[in-house]
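name: query_chain
kind: protein
chains: 1
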Amino acid sequence: MLGLCAAAVAAGDATAQGSWPTRPIRVVVPSSPGGPTDVVTRLIGDHILADLGQPLVIDNRSGGGGMIGFRLAARAEPDGYTLIMGNPGPVAIVPYTEATVGYDILRDFEAVSMVMIVPVMLVVRAEIPVHTPRELAAYMRANPGVVAFGSSGPGQSPHMAAELFGKMADVPVLISPYRGAAPAVSDLVAGTIQAMFDTTTALPHTQAGRLRALAIGSRVRSTLMPDVPTMEEAGFPGFEISSWYPLFAPTGTPPEIIARLNAVVVKALNDPVSRTRLASMNAEAIPSTPTEARAYVEGQLANWGNIVRRIRTA
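structure:
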């Protein structure tokens, strides 16, 4: 009798998993609307609706360097109905900068796929009379307190890039953290702040001439901005910071659901329309297997440990 009951339960579970999804899928976005994490999640959502027949519901949970959103997702049922889009801050930086994180990225989450990688660029208001990172550093020394940096949030890669810039240039950097890239860039354009490292949100304003891109933090130049040098080319050797975005599900999510999600995400990112949309944001699609995504995250945890130690070393 017990064997029959167990078989019935197993059959029921298989049926439930086989019929997934039967309701909308929530993706927690640990930043404000309008930033790159939000934009790429919405792009993938169009494909999830088309391929799985259920809409993707975006749940923006900004604040705490992304930790608020990840704490929420870590407590969610691992049933395939809650996902979270990651970025360097809550995934690989806060473990080294915060005493209490509230989750373990490798223990509490299953990787679904890598999504995209975006260069982090140093931008200033067009009115600031500088055209290189070294000129900016010199201007800041000559005009203390005049240049305030914004960031998409404490512990995020643009925030850490500003700290690393200050460390390498040997100049104090005042950083005002925001709850996402969109409000920070709005204040940059308005003149409340004068400079920041950003990924995609500032790009239209650099193209329109309101902001000036001085350099990017990637190892190689961006094909979309070939005239903008890397930070290393601009005289900051070893400066290599970019933003990358993996999609996660809570640990315990059935592997067949992870596999179906991975197939949809990979298909979405290989779509020429999606790649064109990402290229317009200066982003490159990097779809992967779940195993490859986990290995990438593990490598970035080691990389960011080195970066944080470099910044914090007196």
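note: The two ends are 69 Å apart (CA to CA).
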